[in-house]
Amino acid sequence: DQPFELMCDASDYAVGAVLGQRIEKHIWPIHYASKTMNQAEANYTTTEKEMLAVVYAFEKFRSYLIMNKSIVYTDHSALKYLFAKKDAKARLLR
């Protein structure tokens, strides 16, 4: 019963995510997803865009993640900091 692993990333105009599971040190992809941002989302800060990618991944893969352990990977150091921080801005935590 391995946890699901989410790899999320954002660019200036799109977000993407990969859902996978680790089996014997290798990550086996289950599903890929991406979407282009609308005009309002394209104006987000870099941190907000990276968070948008994580939120999109959880919404897209919701049926896999409900009641299962999941691990999120992101390359954005500020986002890693926010996940560890208890008193982050309300907008980012929503």
In short:
This protein is α+β, with helices and mostly antiparallel strands and 94 residues long.
Provide structural commentary.
This protein has 94 residues and is an alpha+beta fold. It has a single domain, classed as Roll (Ubiquitin-like (UB roll)), CATH 3.10.20. It is 37% helix and 34% strand. The chain has five helices and four strands. The protein has helices at residues 39-42, 46-60, 62-65, 77-84, 90-93, and strands at residues 4-10, 14-23, 26-36, 70-73. A four-stranded mixed sheet has the order 3-2-1-4. β2 and β3 form a beta hairpin. The longest helix has 15 residues, at 46-60. It is globular and about 40 Å long. The model has no long low-confidence stretch (mean pLDDT 87). Keywords: Endonuclease, Hydrolase, Nuclease, Nucleotidyltransferase, RNA-directed DNA polymerase, Transferase. GO terms for molecular function: endonuclease activity; hydrolase activity; RNA-directed DNA polymerase activity. InterPro entries: DNA/RNA_pol_sf, RT_RNaseH. Residues 2-94 form the Reverse transcriptase RNase H-like domain. It holds the Pfam family RT_RNaseH.
